[in-house]
């Protein structure tokens, strides 16, 4: 087996996580699965090229039997039967404690879009998960003592590892960089799977950014291998898959089918989904050009088609349908902003509960009650609404791809906001914070991806703004220069300058970079 080499700097308590046994377990995962990961990433480009040339995607003819077959996913374990409110957040120590105490049923412990994968964050996130699972996690910070409360039910931990595309420079196996997803999954599983089972929970995961059922098959094989290696019963791992890429929307059934012994549901990851629609069809013509990011809502016809199909697919197969993130967050200093955010989140969760979702996401502890209240109204004493099978729903490929009917337009204010948010977010990411409050919205990698890919698409299509200006690279550079001047008073030059350069690269390069976090990762030391 390839030998593990730890290349990242030492991290406090890292020796408890990067033990020889844990590294050997990761080496086994890499030996078995890294090459297949590489092949599947290559397959992504081939499929995208087909969509670019045809401007189309469709349900797969070769998997029709699966879509029409009679099968169900495994029954949910007790800890995942009631998911009416899920809080998401990075695994820093304070957020971990606050999330577990928040009153949410589930905590999505985010090693992905809300986390900058600095080696220190990668390892300390695992230290925090280790302590969280054992309920020993405490912190002294800002004159406050943090610990798990005795009088609330602690949220069930569901870990989101990085997507398949990201490598990890802090570790190598046989001289090749580790696969980020296998590191995140493997360390949590190795240290905590048995401990979680002893406590009546289990190793539960959220799987991000998949583009096909073959990628789901790979995850399923990883789970089976991990269970076998550690002597844990097959089917103990439970995974909720984020449907957050446009090709995956055409394979919801197949993804559940591949993971059926390990699946617990699908989530409508709306932000990455929007990013994916733009990215996939960025050069397929005007009909895929979307209006300003913040004006595309969940009631746009193509977004509605996606969520309706998701609920229908899940409940047909006995899987949970989990709603997405309304990005509005409260602001302690501004009651008006807070009141408006609460109203918007309430409306969003009310719509989702009415549509048949079994629960949904919030980004902030201040939103937990609102989400719970809206789901309580629909669920009452029932833990979920798997029985609402939504048989009347039927969604076509054209409906999923109908970006053209989205109301709204591209505006100069929208362009400026995209540049401003993009730069602010990248500066935050580079500093080690993968999630940030920007203009009273939660921003993470997914939301920032929309901003920069939208700019790229508008330039490529020469989109006309409300001012009559056509979006060109020159126009965007002008906006960039103005925004950079404004932000100089707020962001240190050592973060602002690389953030501006990176934004320019990911928004204006001739060749569209697949993920902004790839060139950003190259920049971190
Ligand atoms: C599109 C997607 O992929 S969504 C999923 C990925 N994104 C995320 O998970 C982002 C989750 N949200 C966050 O990270 C945060 O809410 C932020 C960064 C947006 C804002 O955080 P802050 O600036 O700290 O907000 P604010 O000052 O209002 O926080 C108030 C308190 O709530 C805590 N808090 C805020 N958000 C969270 C959270 N998601 N989980 C746990 N605690 C939280 C803060 O730690 C703070 O605690 P304290 O009073 O003990 O100091
Ligand atoms: O990951 C979730 C999303 O909305 O993107």
TrEMBL record:
Residues 411-524 form the Malate synthase C-terminal domain. It catalyses: glyoxylate + acetyl-CoA + H2O = (S)-malate + CoA + H(+). Residues 4-65 form the Malate synthase N-terminal domain. GO terms for biological process: glyoxylate cycle; tricarboxylic acid cycle. Gene3D superfamilies: Malate synthase, domain 3, Malate synthase, domain III. Keywords: Acyltransferase, Glyoxylate bypass, Transferase, Tricarboxylic acid cycle. Belongs to the malate synthase family. PANTHER family: MALATE SYNTHASE, MALATE SYNTHASE 1-RELATED. This is Malate synthase. It comes from Amycolatopsis japonica.
């Amino acid at each position: 087996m390839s030998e593990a080499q730890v290349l990242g700097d030492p991290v406090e308590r890292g020796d408890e996580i990067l033990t020889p046994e844990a590294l050997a377990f990761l080496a086994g995962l890499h030996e078995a699965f890294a090459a297949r990961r590489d092949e599947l990433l290559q397959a992504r480009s081939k499929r995208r090229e087909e969509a670019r040339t045809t401007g189309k995607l469709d349900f797969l003819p070769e998997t029709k039997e699966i879509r029409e077959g009679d099968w169900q996913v495994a029954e949910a374990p007790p800890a995942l039967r009631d998911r009416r409110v899920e809080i998401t957040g990075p695994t820093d120590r304070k957020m971990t404690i606050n999330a577990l105490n928040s009153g949410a049923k589930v905590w999505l412990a985010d090693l992905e879009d809300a986390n900058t994968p600095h080696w220190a964050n990668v390892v300390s996130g695992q230290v925090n998960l280790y302590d969280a699972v054992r309920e020993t996690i405490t912190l002294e910070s800002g004159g406050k003592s943090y610990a798990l409360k005795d009088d609330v039910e602690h949220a069930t931990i569901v870990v989101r590892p990085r997507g398949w595309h990201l490598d990890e420079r802090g570790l190598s196996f046989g001289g090749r960089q580790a696969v980020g997803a296998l590191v995140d999954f493997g360390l949590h599983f190795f240290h905590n799977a048995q401990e979680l089972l002893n406590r009546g929970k289990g190793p539960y995961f959220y799987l991000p950014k998949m583009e096909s059922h073959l990628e789901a098959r790979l995850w399923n094989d990883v789970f089976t291998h991990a269970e076998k290696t550690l002597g844990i019963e097959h089917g103990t791992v439970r995974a909720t898959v984020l449907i957050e890429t446009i090709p995956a929307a055409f394979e919801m059934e197949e993804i559940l089918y591949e993971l059926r012994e390990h699946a617990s549901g699908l989530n409508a990851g709306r932000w990455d989904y929007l990013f994916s629609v733009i990215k996939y069809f960025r050069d397929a013509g005007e009909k895929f050009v979307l209006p300003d990011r913040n004006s595309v809502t969940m009631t746009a016809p193509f977004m509605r088609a996606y969520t309706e199909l998701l609920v229908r697919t899940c409940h047909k197969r006995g899987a949970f349908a989990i709603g997405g993130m309304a990005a509005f967050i409260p602001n302690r200093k501004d009651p008006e902003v807070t009141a408006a955010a609460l109203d918007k989140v309430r409306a969003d969760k009310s719509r989702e509960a009415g549509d048949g979702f079994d629960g949904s996401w919030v980004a902030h502890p201040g939103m937990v009650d609102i989400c719970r209240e809206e789901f309580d109204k629909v669920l009452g004493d029932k833990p979920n609404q798997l029985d609402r099978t939504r048989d009347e729903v039927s969604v076509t490929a054209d409906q999923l791809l109908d970006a053209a009917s989205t109301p709204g337009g591209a505006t100069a204010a929208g362009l400026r906001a995209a540049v401003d948010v993009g730069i602010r977010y990248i500066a935050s990411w580079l500093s080690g914070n993968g999630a940030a409050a920007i203009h009273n919205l939660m921003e993470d990698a997914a939301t920032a991806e929309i901003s920069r890919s939208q700019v790229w698409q508008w330039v490529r299509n020469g989109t006309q703004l409300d001012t009559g200006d056509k979006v060109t690279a020159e126009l965007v550079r002008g906006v960039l220069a103005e925004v950079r001047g404004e932000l100089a008073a707020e962001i240190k030059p050592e973060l602002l300058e690389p953030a501006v350069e990176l934004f320019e690269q990911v928004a204006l390069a001739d060749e569209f970079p697949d993920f902004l976090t790839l060139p950003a990762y190259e920049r971190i030391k």
